[in-house]
Amino acid sequence: MDFIEKIDPRTKLVWCLTLILTALFSQNLILEIGMIALVMITDCIFSNHLKKYKILLPIMLLVASQIVVIQLLFCRDGDLLWKWGILSVYTGAIPVAALGISRTAAVTLAAVQFMTWTSAIDAALMLIAWGVPYRYAMLVVMTKRFFPLMQKEYLAISESQSVRGYPSEGIKNRIKNLPLTFMPLLYRTVRHTSDIALAMELKGYGRSKQRTFGKHLHLKSWEMISMTALVLFFITVNLVP
Amino acid sequence: MEPAVQLKIESLAFPPETKKVLKDIDLTINQGDFIAITGEAASGKSMLLHSITGAAPQFFNGQLNGTIKVMGQNIHEIPLAKMCDYIGYMMQEPQNQIVNITAAEEVAFGIANMELPWEEIKNRVKKTLQFVGLEGFEQRNTDGLSGGQAQRVVLASVLAMETPILVLDQPTAELDGKGKQDLYSHIAYLNREKGVTVIMVMDRACDILPYTNRILIMAEGAIKEECSPDDYLERLNKKTSPAKNITATDKKIIEVKDLTFTYKGDFKGCEKIDLAINHGDFIGLIGLNGSGKTTLLKLMEGLLVPDAGAIQIFGKPLTKRNFATIRSQIGFLFQNPDLQIFSNTVKDEVAFILRTRKLPRGEFEEKVNGILTEVGLLAYADIHPHRLSRCQRQKLAIASVLVGDPEIIMADEPTSGLDEEQSVVIMELLSAFQQQGKTVILVTHDLGLAKQYANRIVAMHKHRLALDIPAQEIGSYEKTLKDIGLDFQKEGVDYGFH
After folding, report:
1. Is B193 noted as a catalytic residue in this protein?
2. pTM of the predicted model, to two decimals?
3. Which residues does chain A have within 8 Å of residue B153's beta carbon, measured at their own beta carbons?
4. Least buried of A135, B68, B83, B390, by fewest C-beta within 10 Å?
5. CB A153 to CB B339 under 8 A?
6. Taking a C-beta distance cutoff of 8 angstroms, is the pair B343, B349 a contact?
7. CA–CA gap between residue B278 and residue B273 (Å, rounded)
8. Beta-carbon separation of A198 and B79 below 8 A
9. Which domains does chain B have, with CATH numbers?
10. What pLDDT, in 10s, does the model give residues A121-154?
11. Which one of B60, B84, B99, B350 would you mutate to disrupt binding with A, by most A Cβ within 10 Å of its Cβ?
């Protein structure tokens, strides 16, 4: 992971965009699977854990099943495989569904890889390098800090309801309790936002156009070469007839 | 020498509300002063700090009649973002003020905004974290900090700016006794050696009496009185009341055997806890921050599932199947009442439990009114709970628990953020509950309160049970308590009061 941390976020972004755009433009199933494999292999080599994809797996399976169902119901390419009443399944549905699933997987995995490889402060520095004022660029950092905080608040509120007789175990109960949880969560969120804004301003946030950062982005020559190679790869694979 | 702060406030209000949140204040704070501000909840203490920092009326748009000067400059002439040249301000609720992902980034935040060179920033971050007792915490994720650690990080970020004035709103509310004493002595050092002016709102001013030179007592938006630390201490000592006489039965109500719990990421919560609580006990569960008190409470409530060991409540093992039934006989009070208030009126909030039990409205109306009368909130029955003061919200939380006729109340630091008098109000409510033959388990950092109200003191240290003794014998265990960081003598002022 040390190596990944040292890479400029712009290089990581070009890598991610190359994977995503190739996956979107390509009509070749093998290339799509290749994109997925690239994400997995690079993750294995550089960050040495694939645990983060475990959370994605059920969501991706759900999406995949939807794609399969839609293709089986509506695809009319190829030969008729099976017919029951108004339902007709054609052979063309299978490769189209496979292409759709692998494309969705490649795009999702590449995006997740970028997000896990790029720290919030690096993302903010990247925006600053593009001329975004630091007051707005730093919102990336704040967002990353805010979500786990709200998650903690939500759990605390659920716990307090649970001890007063409202069952909060399981997804069904949690969904049922949402209206009750929402109000205190909203109240706390508004308070957080106000407190955080005041605390930031009183610590000099926005007092001048610049602020000191401990890290400065600097594209190394090998990163420039890599980015050029990635762009050329994309053009060759997708745009050259 | 120019005064650090000069306030001449006729009134401060937030239209369309006509109520004056501050009024008739004529106060001069000299450079090098160490001022403690105390007073009942909603008396205007925090608003006074907001006005000194310029937050009110600049951030919270209000109507100010009067003038406020900081180091000779009218606050209207100082933009809020430049106030950090004069004032370092730490508000309540530290987690609400943390912006960054790591502790080092958070401490560096203010000084980085001041555009200091990075080398200087790095030095200050290291020095300040060391100063607040968080050496080596630089890369710690702020999300995973405990309440006490978060409070120290926020304080460090304020101290790192090296401002001539420090304005602190209950800076030690989440710390244990030892943590409080360490922090007070650090701030006192800055005041004494570096001449930093300190203005501090305290829930319990008695904690910092040895370091202050002026005490301001606020009521209804005005400074009711100013006195010396000696006068204040004398007044507090007059209010000392004797310890409660409690006799518990021999009948076990909770039995915990070999209880172990580890949080995700291999953080220890509790380790091999054996504890038996009798019917009618008032347990004072004490220990340093992170010693496992809250974890034990949550395990006994069924909010956490133990890795090993067993819990028996009312003679039955606590399992997933029966914890809903068992919970209906246990009232749980969280440290922050705001987390357990979710109805639109005070009355509805109290009626919540009865409604979940599907009782007809006619039946529970009388009960709700009775409980509200008992806790002194009947007059507020129809207003929104968040319009109540912190003490009143804590009373409301107790009322909403009492209405369910529990056999046991588990209270997690119910007096945090409350002053001495309000703490006594809350403790008296719990004591009255216990006097009915019920059981109370109180997690607290306040040894004085534990000693006065509990019949048993249970101390935890490093996730294990370190001591389980009758409260009246606590004096004989001074050394043991000191060994686990609960220094009786060091907190002498506190115990003088209680």
Report:
1. no
2. 0.82
3. none
4. A135
5. yes
6. yes
7. 16
8. no
9. 5-238 (3.40.50.300), 252-497 (3.40.50.300)
10. 999 999 999 999 999 999 998 888 888 888 888 8
11. B99
